[in-house]
Design goal:
The chain is α+β, with helices and mostly antiparallel strands and 765 residues long. The strands form 5 sheets. The protein has an 8-stranded mixed sheet, with helices on both faces. The chain has a 6-stranded mixed sheet with strand order 14-20-19-17-15-16. It has a two-stranded antiparallel ribbon with strand order 1-2. The chain crosses the membrane at residues 50-72, 105-127.
């Protein structure tokens, strides 16, 4: 074990002849290599900070500007300081002791540097102005106007040659604050189809009163914050929506990502873990070096992907982020292990990581008292966990072991169950897969970690992510790269093992030690009871929709997202016989530190279309209403992405009203309305890593999340290639109004019914 090797690194004995030192040269070598690795990372961080700070300029550009400026002045016989040194010489004594040549060189460097900084600031402000223009989003699908082409050309020109991950941060515009009048107007428009005349008139009166009285006051504070802070929403959103929540984060907040649908690279659990963990660590290395290829979107959420844990508090949680972590934490059959990711000053190779996982799988030791279900504390209510952490894990071996988990790069579970998509039993197999990733046994995932990598006994895998530090597209980016590197770059041997050879001298994993008293075990059992009740109530249904995909939807000249969202409205009406407030997540990363905004997908236009499908309307009329509803949805999505959404504005006005001690009936009612249909599109192919045309078998299953309302549905969908859409549906068994499988059947039928309106077969003929 590693601790045994460390124990003999340094020994000494005292004798009459003096002190006899015994040094382990191998241990000292490892100390030296570890220190060298740390200093290299510090240098890389410093260099990246400089490169990002001067972007879109560069140190090379500095040399070009200064040398060119000095050469020009030397050729023209001009004073490069433009008389600056002559004026400063009266006040700076040191200039009197410098020769004219020295003054000429220093003056040239100073003026050249000023010129370089001026050029950088001009380029940065031009780029910020370019990124503030969102006219390209108004383009019709499949067409690009000359203005958008010119805009794209200018963005590339002012973006520099090799932007790094965080290069665009200082050039991104700030999220604008919508006017109170516009927000109230658009809110009333969004709830009109959900209210009768009496309810609507009442809400209209509340909105008018707010707009006239309290609204301007809270708006003033938001304007002030938007000028002062990088983003007027994100910090309050993270704190009040995520970190202050006292309910379990398992199911309620955390979400999951699933493995490939049809491809199983290896059936050896340790081998899949070896390649996967190595691929993730390679991703972290690129992230530390800011070498992930950026797009002109905010990259701030990447900063806390690794070495991050949500720390429970009595009233509010906090996010603990370490600059560096050289180990991961692994759970298997009730035991926790600390596994170092570096040896000999380098990252462990896939076969070496597989070797470590094999040692854990072969370990026959029993869990210590209370250890097996310890992680249930992270699955239950937050306040009991916070109190238990302070009482039982603040000293001794418990603190050391907890630190090993919380300061790990990420958490790995070697699950002892088998999960995969079974074509002979597709419904039950995928539903079981989804539930295992969403909550597992409630004690075999550390839900507080930024993400858990879950490796199943038969070699399949998945991921469970904590939500407060970032949104799904960030984790999705990691997941795509991880899967691609795992299969296409690292590969496996013919017998399913990682390529390479085991290391003959690699120290083994370190078993974490615990001393969990009976009082703490009672808290663990109480948290587990709460978590199991929540998990057992989740009705998950995942299915691949294979009848058609975005390829046919595009032939209908309709946005795929709008098509699916309208189909969800039709399916929900057929499922429950009524419309409901619908949440669709969109991103606001076009702005600095932007996260998400809500698209209220249930509109008057979509309701009109749904009613036309229920009533006996002509096909032409239904198509007309569908087109109107799709255009409305697209416009709302564009507004949400470009800072014109209403829900984050309403939320922030509510927060300010609470700080002011004001009670707003309008805001209170708005913020208490339940989202009975919560939807999200999982981003697919953010990177061109998979050729799904030639290799459709590498289709991703996507991921999902738990229901937001007790009597509602959570729906996640991923548009895979041209011919596949995967759906993930969740609800609660305890609600008599919901049934995930019934809703799934309604979604299938709604998708087919809407496509049938276009009569594509007839057009083809």
């Amino acid at each position: 074990m590693a601790e045994a090797h460390q124990a003999v690194a340094f020994q000494f004995t005292v004798s009459p002849d003096g002190i006899d030192l015994h040094l382990c040269h191998e241990a000292l070598r490892q100390v030296y290599l570890s220190g060298l690795h740390s200093w290299k990372k510090r240098f890389v961080r410093f260099k990246n900070g400089v490169m990002t700070g001067v972007y879109p300029g560069s140190p090379a550009g500095f040399m070009v500007v200064v040398v060119s400026y000095m050469s020009y002045n030397k050729y023209k016989q001009l004073d490069p300081s433009l008389g600056l040194f002559a004026k400063l010489g009266q006040h700076i004594p040191i200039s009197r002791y410098m020769s004219s040549d020295s003054q000429r060189i220093v003056g040239g460097v100073l003026v050249g540097t000023s010129l370089w900084i001026t050029i950088i600031m001009i380029m940065r402000n031009v780029l910020k102005s370019l990124l503030s223009w969102h006219g390209w989003m108004q383009e019709r699908h499949g067409t690009v106007s000359w203005s958008s082409r010119l805009w794209l050309l200018l963005v590339r020109l002012f973006s520099g040659r090799k932007p790094m991950l965080y290069s665009f941060q200082n050039s991104l515009p700030r999220l604008p604050v919508p006017s109170v009048k516009d927000t109230c107007k658009r809110y009333l428009e969004s709830v009109r189809p959900l209210m009768d005349d009496e309810q609507y008139d009442r809400m209209k009166g509340l909105a008018k009163d707010f707009e006239k009285n309290l609204g301007p006051r809270v708006q003033w504070y938001l304007k002030l914050k938007s000028w002062w802070a990088s983003n007027y929403v994100s910090d309050w959103w993270e704190e009040y929506i995520y970190l202050r929540g006292r309910a379990p984060i398992m199911v309620n907040s955390n979400y999951y990502a699933m493995d490939f649908l049809y491809v199983f690279p290896t059936s050896i659990q340790a081998a899949r873990a070896g390649n996967t963990i190595h691929a993730i660590m390679l991703y972290r290395r690129k992230l530390d070096r800011a070498q992930i290829k950026p797009v002109p979107l905010c990259s701030a959420q990447w900063e806390r992907m690794f070495n991050t844990t949500r720390i429970p508090g009595v009233e509010t949680d906090t996010l603990q982020h370490m600059n560096e972590s050289k180990h991961i934490a692994v759970y298997h059959k009730g035991r926790f292990f600390k596994v170092w990711m570096f040896y000999d000053g380098r990252l462990l190779l896939p076969r070496e990581i597989e070797q470590q996982m094999e040692r854990i799988l072969a370990d026959q030791s029993e869990p210590l008292p209370g250890e097996e279900r310890l992680a249930a504390l992270t699955a239950g209510d937050r306040t009991p966990w916070a109190k238990a952490r302070e009482t039982f894990f603040s000293r001794g071996k418990n603190k050391q072991s907890l630190d090993a988990i919380e300061k790990a790069a990420f958490f790995v579970t070697l699950d002892d169950s088998e999960q995969l998509y079974d074509k002979d039993n597709p419904v039950q197999s995928l539903d079981s897969f989804a539930k295992s990733l969403l909550h597992g046994k409630c004690y075999d995932r550390w839900f507080d970690k930024s993400f858990n990598m879950i490796l199943f006994k038969n070699g399949t895998m998945g991921l469970n992510a904590e939500h407060s530090w970032a949104d799904a597209p960030i984790v999705g980016h990691l997941w795509e790269v991880c899967q691609s590197v795992n299969v296409f770059h690292l590969g496996y041997t013919e017998d399913g093992h990682c390529c390479g050879k085991p290391h003959p001298n690699l120290p083994g994993p370190m078993r974490l030690q615990w001393d969990i008293p009976a009082e703490c075990q009672e808290v663990i059992q109480s948290s587990l009871t709460v978590a199991r009740a929540l998990a057992d109530d989740v009705d998950c249904h995942s299915f691949p929709f294979t009848q058609f995909g975005k390829g046919l939807i595009k032939k209908c000249r309709t946005s795929p997202d709008a098509f699916i969202q309208i189909a969800l409205q039709l399916a929900h009406y057929r499922d429950k016989g009524k419309f409901c407030l619908t949440y669709e997540a969109s991103m606001t990363r076009l702005f600095r530190e932007g996260r998400t905004e809500t698209v209220r997908s249930c509109t008057t236009e979509s309701c009109d279309f749904v009613r036309s499908m229920i009533r006996d309307e002509t096909r032409e009329e239904r198509l007309r209403l569908l087109k109107v509803a799709a255009e409305k949805h697209q416009n709302m999505y564009r507004l949400a992405m470009t800072g014109g959404g209403i829900d984050r504005h309403l939320f922030c006005m509510y927060v300010v009203s609470k700080y002011l001690g004001e009670d707003s009936p309008f805001l209170k009612e708005v913020l208490s309305e339940p989202w009975r249909l919560s939807t999200s599109q999982t981003p697919m192919q953010q990177l061109e890593l998979f050729d799904l045309v030639r290799h459709p078998e590498y289709a991703s299953s996507g991921g999902g999340f738990g229901p937001v309302a007790d009597d509602g549905y959570g729906v996640s969908y991923i548009i895979v290639g041209e011919n596949l859409i995967n759906f993930h549906i969740s609800s609660k068994f305890s609600s008599p109004e919901t049934d995930s499988h019934r809703f799934g059947a309604n979604i299938r039928q709604a998708m087919l019914d809407i496509l049938g309106l276009f009569q594509l077969d007839n057009k083809a003929k």
